[in-house]
Specification:
Length: about 180
């Protein structure tokens, strides 16, 4: 079984007492937290209790702004992949799913990925939220603005790793209702 990052949406964030109602499945990705997940939780990023595991290792962020950032980067990446039908299909499938599953917040579950390092899970999520995610957002913003061509070329060359996650209404961890 692969360790995965899980991305959901909901109209509220989890707290110590309960998880949100109406959780919608967005995406899961094997063995890593991909660039797409980092960008989607890159606006209004905050650490929240996990909906799956005990430590506070979930990440919540603004849905509309995170989705817009991802769409902007996909457009920039696509400018070098106009003849790549598989990329165009990936973008169409991703954007349609994001529109369908829209809510107020993205909720990223990191537990399976951060547990692979053996480090303290809460410290790992703090590093992710304060370092890795803002770094990915800054690089994406620069690339979108035409100021980070080398990074954009590297993302374009390996777009499947960054964007071709499993998007579905049912993930390995799904929530009733």
């Amino acid at each position: 079984m692969a360790n995965r990052s899980y991305l959901y949406s909901a109209d509220s964030v989890p707290n110590e007492a309960e998880i949100p109602k109406g959780i919608r499945c967005i995406s899961e990705h094997n063995w890593d937290i991909p660039l797409a997940h980092k960008l989607m939780v890159g606006r209004g990023t905050t650490i929240v209790p996990s909906m799956i595991w005990n430590p506070p290792i979930g990440i919540a962020a603004d849905y509309a702004e995170g989705a817009a950032l991802l769409r902007d980067l996909l457009r920039a990446v696509g400018k070098g992949l106009e003849d790549e039908a598989e990329f165009a299909e990936c973008v169409a499938r991703t954007t349609a799913h994001l529109e369908k599953q829209q809510a107020k917040y993205f909720l990223l579950e990191t537990g399976e990925i951060i547990s692979m390092s053996g480090d303290d899970p809460a410290a790992s999520v703090r590093r992710l939220a304060s370092g890795d995610i803002p770094d990915a957002v800054a690089k994406a913003e620069a690339a979108i603005a035409g100021q980070n061509d080398d990074w954009l070329a590297s993302v374009r060359a390996d777009w499947q790793t960054h964007f071709a996650s499993f998007y579905s209404e049912a993930l390995y961890f799904s929530f009733p209702g």
